[in-house]
Specification:
The complex is a heterodimer of chains A (617) and B (130). Chain A is α+β, with helices and mostly antiparallel strands. The N and C termini of chain A lie far apart (112 Å). Chain A has 20 helices and 21 strands. Chain A is elongated and about 135 Å long. The relative contact order of chain A is 0.05. A 5-stranded parallel β-sheet of chain A has the order 2-1-3-4-5, with helices on both faces. Chain A has a 5-stranded antiparallel β-sheet with strand order 7-6-10-9-8. Chain A has a 5-stranded mixed β-sheet with strand order 12-14-15-17-16. Chain B has 130 residues and is an alpha/beta fold. Chain B has one domain (7-119): Rossmann fold, CATH 3.40.50. Chain B is 46% helix and 20% strand. Chain B has helices at 15-27, 38-47, 64-73, 91-99, 112-129, and strands at 7-11, 31-35, 52-56, 82-87, 104-108. Chain B has a 5-stranded parallel β-sheet with strand order 2-1-3-4-5, sandwiched between helices. In chain B, helix 2 packs parallel to helix 3 (64-73). Chain B starts with 6 loop residues before the first strand and ends with a helix. The chains are: A alpha+beta (617), B alpha/beta (130).
Chain lengths: 617, 130
């Protein structure tokens, strides 16, 4: 059964001198199952003209053509219509010419005198099909090349440096931006060691100095795992932040200058008011005293505003550093209440303290949160009948501290705004805002830095309760966390961190006859005294009862100096504390990070072992 | 204390602050001398025979740490207790103060009452060791 000849006819150009072969071709195509239109020419010139005139599906070239090199006709046709299939027609004695023609770009060849219908139509069909497939292949190769070029352009022209490092730490690829940042060429860098940390956990900051010592750049490195030539590798993106850091530093300096310039006159104003209130400038009458106190309050408000703005700019710059230690919350709450006494008026303060463990926190910062929340409650609670309650409760995340008041409450739709900077919740728009709108934002930042959470619970007409959580103190975590925190203190990377363990066990033993509450108080005094004699950045951690760890940024000789100073201070204190039961021995041991161990556990146990040795030796 | 007044040297380049501190200390029973820069501080420390020195960090001519360093290396002067007056924002200052041999520090802005307390404590400590 032969299908109907439908569709557009395919066009075949036949360049052939031999009329016999030409007739045969025409006959075969007429019998084919697809309509064909055949154009027969006998010279190369006619053939090329015909090619430029119309769209041809396939060209059949009879070889050789007189006065032309044997393969030239094929070469010329292929050059003129590169996407059209070409078949060569050769004489039986010159079959090798057919093979040569295929090498020059013909799809196939046919031999005169051996042509038959089936072979001919199949050869033509295959030639067209092969050419189509070849075209597709060429197009996909083109598009692959195009996308590779595109990708290459993206990588080469990327403003960020890109470095690929194999698992041996050797560089296998760098883009031009990376060459510029590292100050060395691709060739020089290839197979050299990448000298910077390759952590995928966080963005690290490195400083790059060109080999010629010129041009110091600050660069942020972000590393991701990748595959390079089928193997695992690290891809590091280097982002130049030199300019941004310079602006940040200028801003920091500006803030610090401004804060000094603002504080100096405030200090002086506050001082004059204090002198007058202290009667240092003569007697004052009750009304003068009242107005001076008003003035003092507003000076304090202004000072608080400046501190809040500075604190927030510190948080924004990631520069607020916590000095965490063991904190006894009930005393801290008392301290907050005491320091807010002036604003409390007749409001009642209630304490609902469960027995809670100590927390690991920066006491100064937590005090700031407590004072802030308390002053917030005071602002929104009437002086007569106002009640503010502090609660301490155990919580799955540690200890929860709640400050509840019986004020007007905050509408649900306003609550989300509370912890946003500069937001104010007012009872009505005609009312003047009370405060700067920064206090709660700072509270949230401080609690966040402690890995705690802060929340508000409020019902209109019933009151408001702010709660936040702090982690429970645990000596092992506190030690390793503090060591970690200390690493970012200025100078820690060059000098290292010294660890001093102070055992007050002998003091405790000699005071053994004291009631335990009294004894605990004395031991806490000892710890407090050590803390007072160190600077704010140093950490004082109680590891166990009567065992205190001190962490300070210092090199090895510095560690010795701290030990001697501590020995002297503790002995002075012990003499006073023990009295007649003395003298009590204070035993100290020191270690140094990273000399004596890079891991907190290793370091601590090394120093503990020394302490044991010193106690028994 | 009523019979012999202890002498305090107050070093601050802010004349207003120096004036206020001086007044408060005088009212609290001290004899006060004042210096406005690092050089003057050293001269007054040598010639004025103070028993306590309150030293600001930011000073013209020589900063507070330089003055502190010179005082603590001087055989005659190193026994005089020095309290540094540091800016609250610069926590590093407190560490640096102690490393340079300061006997105490007080962060600005301070309460006058606290300053008087600290001066008293420094004098007591100095008195007990001598």
């Amino acid at each position: 059964m032969r299908p109907d000849k439908v569709g557009d006819p395919l066009r075949l150009l036949l360049i052939e001198r031999d009329h016999g072969s030409a007739r045969l071709v025409q006959k075969f195509l007429a019998a084919a199952d697809w309509p064909w239109k055949v154009e027969h020419v006998t010279t190369m010139q006619e053939g090329l003209e015909s090619l430029s005139a119309n769209g041809v599906s396939i060209v059949l070239v009879g070889l050789p053509i007189p006065e032309m090199k044997p393969l030239d006709p094929v070469v010329q046709v292929c050059a003129r219509v590169p996407h059209v299939p070409v078949l060569a027609l050769v004489s039986p004695r010159e079959e090798s010419l057919g093979l040569d023609a295929v090498q020059q770009g013909a799809q196939d060849y046919l031999v005169r005198g051996r042509l038959n219908q089936e072979m001919f139509t199949r050869a033509v069909r295959y030639a067209i099909e092969r050419r189509r497939l070849l075209g597709e292949l060429e197009r996909s190769v083109d598009s692959l090349q195009m996308s590779e070029t595109n990708l290459k352009n993206v990588i080469e022209n990327n403003a960020d440096g890109i470095v690929v490092v194999n698992p041996d730490g050797r560089i296998v690829f760098v883009n031009p931006s990376a060459e510029a940042l590292l100050g060395r060429s691709f060739k020089e860098l290839l197979d050299s060691t990448f000298e910077h940390p390759l952590t995928t956990e966080k963005i690290t900051e490195i400083h790059l100095v060109r080999p010629d010592g010129q041009d110091r750049r600050t660069v942020e490195v972000q590393v991701v795992d990748t595959i390079w030539e089928g193997k695992r590798a690290s891809l590091a993106a280097l982002h130049d932040v030199t300019e941004r850091k310079r602006v940040e530093q200028m801003k920091d300096e500006f803030v610090s200058t401004v804060s000094h310039e603002l504080r100096t006159p405030l200090t002086s104003m506050k001082g004059v008011v204090a002198l007058m209130l202290n009667r240092a400038l003569g007697d004052i009458n009750p009304e003068q005293e009242d107005f001076l106190k008003t003035m003092r309050q507003d000076i304090d408000r202004l000072a608080e505003l400046i501190n809040n703005i500075l604190d927030l700019s510190k948080v924004d710059a990631g520069k607020m550093m916590l000095v965490r230690q063991r904190v006894h919350l009930p005393s801290l709450v008392e301290q907050a209440v005491r320091s807010s006494q002036a604003i409390l008026g007749h409001r009642t303060i209630e304490r609902r303290f469960d027995s809670v463990p100590d927390v690991f926190a920066d006491s100064g910062r937590v005090l700031q949160v407590l004072v802030n929340l308390l002053s917030n409650s005071v602002k929104f609670t009437p002086e007569e009948g106002g009640m503010i309650a502090f609660e301490l409760k155990l919580h799955p995340e540690g200890v929860a501290i709640t400050i509840a008041d019986n004020g007007p409450g905050i509408a649900k739709e306003d609550q989300w705004r509370l912890f946003q900077k500069f937001e104010q919740v007012r009872e009505s728009w005609t009312e003047r805002p009370k405060g700067t709108g920064l206090g709660l934002a700072i509270c949230r930042e401080i609690v966040d830095l402690h890995q705690g959470t802060i929340s508000v619970q409020s019902d209109l007409g019933k009151g408001t309760a702010f709660s936040f959580t702090l982690p429970v103190y645990d000596s092992a975590t506190a030690f390793s966390q503090s060591l970690q925190d200390m690493k970012s203190v200025e100078g820690a990377d060059q000098q290292g961190i010294s660890v001093v363990l102070v055992s007050l066990a002998d003091v405790e033993r000699r005071l053994g006859s004291l009631p335990s509450a009294k004894l605990e108080e004395v031991m806490k005094e000892g710890e407090e005294m050590i803390r007072k004699r160190l600077s704010r950045n140093d950490r004082v951690l109680s590891l166990e009862r009567s065992l205190i760890a001190i962490l300070a940024v210092a090199d090895v000789p510095g560690t010795e100096a701290i030990q001697q100073r501590m020995q002297k201070i503790c002995e002075e204190w012990a003499t006073k504390a023990v009295g007649k039961a003395g003298p009590a021995a204070i035993v100290l041991a020191t270690g140094h990070f990273p000399q004596d161990g890079g891991e907190p556990e290793v370091l601590l146990s090394a120093v503990r072992a020394r302490l044991e040795g010193a106690q028994h030796g | 204390m009523a019979d012999v007044k202890h002498r305090v040297l107050v070093v601050d380049d802010e004349p207003n602050i120096a004036k206020i501190v001086k007044k408060q200390l005088e009212v609290s029973g001290y004899d006060v001398i004042v210096a406005g820069d690092g050089e003057e501080a050293l001269t007054k420390a040598r010639e004025g025979h103070p028993e306590v020195i309150l030293l600001d960090v930011m000073l013209p001519k020589r900063n507070g740490y330089e003055v502190l360093g010179i005082l603590k290396q001087d055989e005659q002067l190193k026994r005089i207790p020095v309290m540094m007056l540091t800016a609250r924002a610069q926590q590093q200052d407190q560490q640096t103060s102690l490393e340079h041999g300061a006997d105490a520090y007080l962060a600005k802005p301070f309460q006058l009452e606290e300053l008087v307390e600290q001066v008293k404590a420094l004098l007591e400590r100095a008195g007990s060791t001598t």
